Queue: 3 jobs
Job 1
Amino acid sequence: MENVGLGLSALDRSAKTLSGGESQRIRLAAQLGSNLRGVLYVLDEPTIGLHPRDNDALLDTLEALQSQGNTLVIVEHDEETMRRFGHYRRSRPRRGMHGGEVVSIGTLAEIKKNKISKTGRYLRKPMQHPLRGSRRSLDKVMKWLQIVKADTNNLKDVTVKFPVGRLTAITGISGSGKKHPDALGSAPGSRGSASAKK
């Protein structure tokens, strides 16, 4: 569990509270202990929701699976993951009948040189944030959403407020309670309340 970024998850936590990425990583941890060989693993964005601190441990785990004689096919957008593995296939981003066109195949160096690959373009010249040059000040925010004493799963008596009408990013290591709906007092038996304040 530690190796796949789930070291903080409680063992008595209900499966329905896990994200798709967390569930996938639990299955991955089980596979590590099985010592199977010659297996094809297809993983859909295994690093999603992971803090950068946990990425290296997960990628080490994937490399360990590969070194045991298994094949890994990974759908991923994370740059570090792309840099760790050797062969890439880039498809057009449209869906349905307008998608599925392969625009580049090869090593990371070859993808970076491909003029029609958006992935290659962003690897050559990463986007700079914020795009506007500076972040907007919060001094003039009139309304805030405040969560008072959220206390569920890994959240312990947490009080926090968010600016209304702004984009707020919540970061932290996997299992630290970033996205659990109980934090808003929305689930039976949870402790904590949400209120709008001026």
Job 2
Amino acid sequence: MPEAYETAGVLATAAHLNGSVFHTLLCSPTVYVLTLVNVGTMASVKYGYFDPEESHLQIHPHHSAMLTGLLSFFLVFYNSKVFARYEKLQALMKDVSESTIVLVAMVKRHVQSKDACQHLLRLLLAGNFIFYFEISPDMTPGAVGNVSQEEWVTLLNLKLLSATEIMSLQGHVTECHATPGHASFILLHWSMLLLMQNHVDSGRLTQFEQRFHVLRDHQADVLALLELSMPFAYVHLLSFMLVVTMLLLAFSFGTADSYVSVMIYFIVQLVFFGVRELSVSLSDPFGVDKVDFPAAMWMTSVYNRCNAIMNDVWDPNDRPAAGFGTLRKIELGRTVFDLQMDALDNGDRPHRTSSYNQKATNDIQNPNRIASQLDAAGNPAECKYSHCQLKNLSEHEKDCQT
């Protein structure tokens, strides 16, 4: 689904500076210093203090093109690598969340003790929270294992960990001088010990171990990507090329006999420095920048989904009424339902070629009819066509009557 800024239009998006890299660049002195060099060169040439031709210091347009082309290659290559890493981190963090949810569902199905289920739920959620805390380090006084005291207290207030468990985790981290990721691993280890204590059969325990290994592998991949940053030599070379090229372009644009060249040079700076600033922001997506991952939203979703699964009251013995019967066959050339049924208000609903779709449209626009059908479906004895699941089709109702 496209974001709002992707459909807002080119002009509206370009004029919206909040959240863009331009907002950061316009607060940086680098752009203004280089622009001052450009304006100073132009003023020196304009008022006769400096003549590039007499000094043989002209920069040929081909030379400027060569510099900008080489710099563009380095910047695009650097940005593509950083964005690929950004995408990989996003996919891995989603895998961590989904693996946790799968484990919670397995615990719900195979662990008989309700107390053990709730304890495992707390340990798994605490492991996810601590992993996020570890990869977004907090160096405030009292932080243990890149987890601040405030974050430890949050886990205690959420009743995900007891005070004894927190002290034990902190002891693990401090005694072995562990790197980030150790505390979350210990919580997975405790979860496996708890499963063994609750007499899960060996075959099922092996499946649990495999799922725990998958979860830990995703976490380890995230840690490895965060540890492997761009080499300093490459970043230094890129920064050196960027500064030197911008200085030479400031001189080159300053010798042009046009005031418009100042504006063009300023825009060129914003683009080149903006690409680099964007790459720097994408390199560490665990923070509070606009391009950073919505980690709080993700963790809230995982918390709610795991809690809902563990406290699910659905009974597999509660089967639908016999009146539901078998599913209806969909004829060739027709669809089971309209996947764009919620796009009516946007005016982009696809063309309908069958009375099924037109009837479905009328039903969607008439919520009272839907409510009456749901009520009838809930009480098959009062439903005229109790064996029909798709009663909103006039043609299908005729089939039911026959």
Job 3
Amino acid sequence: MNPIQNQLSGGAFKKGFPALWTPGIGLGRASALRPETRGIIASLARGLAFNPGAAALLVWGVLAAQEPALALDLARPALSAHVPAEAKLATPLGRLPGDRRLNLAIGLPLRHTEALTNLLSQLYDPTHPRYHQYLTSEQFTAEFGPTEQDYQAVVAFAQANGLWVMTVHPNRVVLDVSGTVADIERTFHLSLHTYRHPVEDRVFYAPDTEPTLELPVPVLHISGLSDLVRPHPTSLNVRPVGRGNGGTPAGGAGPNGTYLGRDFRGAYARDVSLTGTGQMLGLVAFDGYYTNDIATYCARAGLTPVPLINVLLDDFDGQPTGSNNEEVALDIDMANSMAPGLAAIIIYQAGPSGYAEDLLNRMATDNLAKQLSTSWGLGGTPTINQIFLQFAAQGQSFFTASGDNGAVSGSVFPPSDNPYITSVGGTTLFTTGPGGSWLSETTTWTRNPFP
């Protein structure tokens, strides 16, 4: 961030904005401003001292009109990691229609990241006085979240460029906006092209270049400029039952010997009295589920249904959209089986077109469930990685399925490679019989062919 950007993002308003534009204060070419330009900016600063974000945006507009050369210096450098390698290697099929509407999730960077890393080391060090003294979501926002001034500047920037603000988040890490392709392309100085998907039978879109924002505050990432990777259940390959580790597989209590309900506690928590009493569990879901499926499973397994709380995000209505509702039901059933004493299971549902940033960030700002789980492939973005840091600072454990499709060797796809979450792999389990104890299991730590 150059000195002018630093001043516009907050410091100048604390020191008295008009003084910023006088010669000899170390702001480079600011001393070359014409007197009439300095006068306009000083008036804006005095009139909008109550709203630094709006003032910064208006200052940018004045510079763009009065001093275009200096305005170019203020433009932030292009962001990174928005143009997929698959798009770079493919031939475009065409352009997205200009009147098509897209939803975007704009991520802002956390502050004081070095201090945050040090805090996390202390929180998880049994010998440190701060061991397990976790932050509340409000404390995290105050200490590490983007400033209110920066957040409001991004809001004003979006609105000034014809984008609709859909959702504001209390920790100011994410801002949800919506706009036409034409407005998005103009705002971020890019073109959205379509390409043939390399694995799936569909077309995806992606930008031809990295986005650039004429905005004097930092932005970390913009999700929604490409749909190459969509949320999807992590693949699970069913393999024939065979011998493993010398054990003889025995059938579970379910149909055709499948494992059901108490089979899982019998294997993994046989002599454990803890059942999750008084706690809540949060689940990631990108589809809906049928309540009858949950009731049927609990009845067959002899379980008392745990209360379910639905949190609907990204305009999703909670109605199942296809076969992926089975993934949601399976996650609920397994949670009910392993922790039958839970106070509630919170299902955060964003729908097939939702964004992981919105869903995960809601989990963090709610801070109701200390155990969070996903069996969906989410991909990875810098914004998501920041949310995992907030989970850790608040004492929220996040578990992700590794997937069971592909070779044993190869890359580990995000978010499984994040050091602040736990990746859980699939296994073939052998027990002593229905409801029986663990005998052995073989691991199948593998990966998806596509993230």
